[in-house]
Amino acid sequence: xxxxxxxGLPAKAILESEKIFALEEDVATKQDIRPLKIVxxxxxPKKIETETQILRLISKSPLQVDIDFMMVKGxxxxxxxxxxxxxxxxxxxxxxxxxxxxLIITGAPVEHxxxxxxDYWEELCEIMEWSKKHVYSTIHICWGAQAGLYxxxxxxKKLMDHKVFGxxxxxxxxxxxxxxxxxxxxxxTPHSRHTxxxxxxxxxxxxxxxLSKSKxxxxxxxxxxxxxQIFILGHLEYGKETLAQEYFRDxxxxxxxxxxxxxxxxDDPNNEPVFSWRSHANLLYRNWLNYVYxxxxxxxxxx
Length: 303
What we know:
This protein is of the alpha/beta class. It has helices spanning 11-17, 25-28, 47-58, 82-88, 92-95, 121-134, 143-153, 199-203, 242-252, 278-295; strands at 3-5, 22-24, 36-41, 65-71, 89-91, 100-105, 135-141, 157-172, 186-197, 209-214, 218-223, 229-232. It has a single domain, classed as Rossmann fold (3-Layer(aba) Sandwich).
């Protein structure tokens, strides 16, 4: 089944070239079906790239999904045109009157700052609080996961000695969990961050389950038993070339950056990277959408 996207969204051409079925609003409204309603809070600088990555994963479900995009008004994007934001994005004030089956909060390049010093922190807190009553299930990604764990459970992040950067094997903790159903016992996940959560504080929180983890990256996928809150510390949504683009960007800017772990064949950046995490990324989002579809009421107003 297709995903339903705003008319004219740039990602549509890319998705169509990959044989992904995406319906624009004008066509989707003619189908007599109750699609899932998902809102994406996109905090990443390159919003079109992130839109495409996440829509690519959501589209692999057999369910029809309506997509809304949300932006914070407390931050001015320098890497995405205002025309694009005005055309395809709503502010929280415009979104908050609605209910949703799912919310996705992306990462953001602000991990060097204490949470309270991020210029849109108060607005993000308001959104996360709103999600408790207006969204059935929320996925938090990377910095978004750290922010969610801090806001909801008081789990602080800490600066690491070196950047966790590359493709890391993760050990599956519960093979029968619905969210990771079908995962191999070892699966790969991209990571790109300078901070990590306090694992000791996490272990003391009742009601959070670690679904996969690694000795290199710590906890990777964390969730409440009812999946109302899901936290993914890595970037399963990343495309094949994303880490390469980050690596060469930092090299060009003269920033200290190590070769991404387990990414370039033979650790040679001249070699094309291998897309080794795609199947598990697709499976995770398919499982999530399937669970949400089974559990949310037909009438979202009764959430």
